[in-house]
Amino acid sequence: MQPEERLQIGLGSHITSIDVSVIDTNSEALGVSRLQLMENAGRSVAEELAKRTKRGSRIAVLAGPGGNGGDGLAAARHLAYMGYSVDVVLLAKPSEIRSPEARAMYEAVELMDTTIGLQVARNPRDIDLHGYDVVVDALLGTGLKGAPRSPYAEAIDAINNADALKIAVDVPSGLNADTGEAPGPCVKADVTVTFHKPKPGLLKRPDLVGELVVASIGAPPEAEIYVGPGDVLYRVPRRSWRTHKGQAGRVLVVGGSEDFIGAPIISALAAQRAGVDLVYIAAPSKVITAASKHPVLIPVELKDAPWLSPDHVDTILRVAERVDSIVIGMGLGLNRDTQEAVKELLARIPKDKPVVLDADALKIVSDNRELIRRNMVLTPHEVEFHKVFGVKPAPVEELPARIRDAARQARLHGNVTIILKGPIDVITDGVRARLNKTGAPAMSAGGTGDALAGITGALLAKGLEPFDAACIAAYINGAAGALAYKEYGESMNAMDLIGYIHVVLNGPVKVAKEALVYRRLPVKRTAIGVWNTL
Ligand SMILES: NC(=O)C1=CN([C@@H]2O[C@H](COP(=O)(O)OP(=O)(O)OC[C@H]3O[C@@H](n4cnc5c(N)ncnc54)[C@H](O)[C@@H]3O)[C@@H](O)[C@H]2O)[C@@H](O)CC1
Ligand SMILES: [K+]
Asked: What phi and psi, each to the nearest 5 degrees, are found at residue 383?
């Protein structure tokens, strides 16, 4: 089996510190709180320690003020119960512990005055690790930025100089979990107990990590399989005071015809609400007249024909140079001229420009599939999928087969990203697959697909790679649809959905519950991990 024939369900075999934050947030939205994760993290550290050290041994837990320290404090409590002699050295003022979870862990330890020694050591000279059998390093984890500063730098040296077994919590303190760099002092651990999955930096530095143990801390696999609020929160770039016009993305929407006026306007408005700076809409005159009601859209009038024609291609390509992504298809119609124009356009757009193909553009590429390439996102529903690829996907109830069917076509077409829309969206580039469950039954209303294409184009323009852009667009579109459904019920339309994009984009965690209309769907089980057959 070639490695490239494998399909990864979820986030991959190792995870970055952003992935960790995404998983924790998604997990919380799925009902497993950060406190539960931290408790499990601490317990797994205690259990790994207990496998290696006899009861009654002397343990020092050095804790920092963040989540990593919280894990260490939870471990200390478990270790005390197991019968170890435990001293906690907190390297920060208790008031500096900011997260409610780490604070809860600290407050529990504070009350354990008969079983745990507690020292607040702001001055590194107060750290004395003589006589301990084990030192637990819970100073800094995935939250490390740059080289450790005082007093952590000195505490790290003290750990390295101690004559004891060194167990690092999640990451040896001082090591960048993403890059494997240690820009300053770094704990040299005998054992590192990391959580969820290995981080790339740990795999690069066995010299600092020692024996690597990967512990489950109870996050549901669905926190990775399903796109969640954490993906929106941590992967979509936010503007800063330095951002200048255009930097947050420029999108070009190409669509519409004499017969279909609204579709490209819906896409363009959705793209704008998804947070890009500039949205161009290239369309025949009738569409441009209607679009002029929306002054935030920049019109590019395609003159002298009621529909997109080959004569328009040069005009569109000139605008294409100025944008970061192009969304093509909504309401184009299937006129012969239009088909020719779309094919010419796709052949001439530079390959590095991300493109979303939706609606009629999908039908048009169905007999020129060599135009499909890696840097594209295709957004077919089941019928369109059949039309484009010539195969019917398995029904959504047969979820594993449906994922395979979509992934196979992505693989066969240059690892293009496909969003196979349905009650559960399947998003895949043939190497990875994730699912999206946000949405509402009334999203069968016209225009919701146009909105999805626009949001996808916006996220591509903001610099997300096609797979992440597709995953997160599906989530935002479905969640906005669910919120609109809550308000408008059966009467909801695509403009109502657009009216909620800002709510999801700006506060994904707050509305995560309402974003799921169905808690459970009757589908076949899908396991996380690597599937070896496609
Ligand atoms: N987020 C979560 O829900 C979970 C987090 N977990 C643990 O939490 C860790 C991540 O927690 P945090 O994000 O709070 O980060 P950390 O606990 O890794 O560190 C954050 C703290 O270190 C300080 N800091 C960062 N760089 C520094 C430097 N160069 N010198 C001195 N101080 C520095 C920060 O100001 C902050 O106070 C993970 O490694 C893991 O151990 C686990 O409990 C599992 C659940
Ligand atoms: K650590």
From this structure: -70, -40
- Collapsing DSSP to helix, strand or coil, 376 comes out as strand
The highest-level CATH class for domain 33-218 is alpha beta
* Residue 195 CB less than 6 A away from ligand 1: yes
Domain segments of the chain: what residues? 33-218, 229-528
Nearest ligand, measured from the Cα of 191 = 2
Q: Considering the entire predicted model, what is its pTM?
A: 0.95
**DSSP assignment string, 336-352:** HHHHHHHHHHHHHS-TT
- Residue 66 CB–ligand 1 contact under 6 Å: yes
Write the Ramachandran bin of 249: left for phi over 0, alpha for psi from -120 to 50, otherwise beta.
left
Give the model confidence (pLDDT) of 176-223 as tens digits: 999 999 999 999 999 999 999 999 999 999 999 999 999 999 999 999
Shortest-distance atom of ligand 1 to CA 65 = 37
> What's the pLDDT tens digit per position in 5-49?
789 999 988 899 999 999 999 999 999 999 999 999 999 999 999
Distance 69 CA to ligand 2 centre (A): 8
Architecture of domain 229-528: 3-Layer(aba) Sandwich (3.40)
Note whether ipTM > 0.90 here.
yes
Q: Whose CA is nearest to atom 16 of ligand 1?
A: 143
